[in-house]
Specification:
This is Peptidase C39-like domain-containing protein. This protein has 179 residues and is α+β, with helices and mostly antiparallel strands. The protein is 37% helix and 20% strand. It has one domain: Cathepsin B, Chain A (Alpha-Beta Complex). The chain contains 6 helices and 8 strands. Helix 2 crosses helix 4.
């Protein structure tokens, strides 16, 4: 028994595909300075999903753009969360033909006037949902459930490319706290 082995603890995402849920919780917690109770929000997201689809699909396969739009609409834009924690959510690139450079410029402009921490961008690439809290010339800075803190902007494109992550136009949400 003298042998020691290194063991790494599992993190979110190792055993589940709930990064979409964690991203919504992280975005709302950031926007409302921790006043939202995280576990009840997570429970509400999962319960609302389970009313429409089998919950094991989200746990094992993740959430696609259509289902994410439904969850955002039914949880954040109605009822308790709309009344208690109002946000304005837009999808500025949905159904728009636009170049990657223009998307990045608009994202930087949206987050550039974020002095009071009232804006974030919820997005998905082909692997993962995450939240961008700020950007500079070269990097996007995340609130991410997997522990990633930043990524190079030029690592992303709008169209499939084997060397880049892909932005999905219908999976880019500009979220702003409604004062």
């Amino acid at each position: 028994m003298g042998l020691r082995r290194e063991h790494r603890a599992f993190q979110q995402g190792d055993l589940d595909c709930l990064c979409g849920a964690y991203s919504i919780v992280n975005a709302m917690t950031y926007l409302f300075d921790g006043r939202i109770k995280r576990k009840p929000l997570l429970r509400t997201l999962l319960t609302q999903f389970a009313k429409q689809w089998p919950l094991d699909e989200w746990l094992t396969q993740g959430i696609d753009e259509i289902r994410m739009a439904h969850i955002i609409e039914t949880v954040l834009m109605t009822g308790y969360y709309r009344k208690s924690f109002p946000v304005v959510i837009t999808q500025p690139f949905n159904k728009r033909r636009i170049k990657t450079t223009r998307v990045v410029q608009e994202m930087q402009a949206f987050l550039g006037d974020n002095k009071n921490f009232s804006r974030v961008i919820l997005f998905s690439n082909q692997y993962h949902w995450s939240v961008i809290k700020s950007m500079d010339e070269n990097f996007m800075y995340y609130l991410d459930s997997s522990g990633v803190h930043r990524a190079k902007i030029d690592a992303y494109a709008l169209y499939p490319n084997e060397n880049r992550y892909q932005f999905y136009r219908d999976a880019l949400y500009f979220i702003e706290r409604d004062f």
